[in-house]
Amino acid sequence: xxxxxxxxxxxxxxxxxxxxxxxxxxxxxxxxxxxxxxxxxxxxxxxxxxxxxxxxxxxxxxxxxxxxxxxxxxx
Length: 75
Hints:
This protein has helices at 2-13, 34-48, 54-57, 63-73.
């Protein structure tokens, strides 16, 4: 899941996937803005056929937060 999230972030933000670390903050460290985050969440929903809970999306800060949320929703 981490690799998939990194690939999607890299594609969206135009950065190398290898440079993305789990502890990095999506906005502060990777330079995403709020629209990038919304587009990423929509892409994840489409890719995995899930619906992300509205309240949980606001709590996402790091790449690992995204991975953890996706793992939880896929169970």
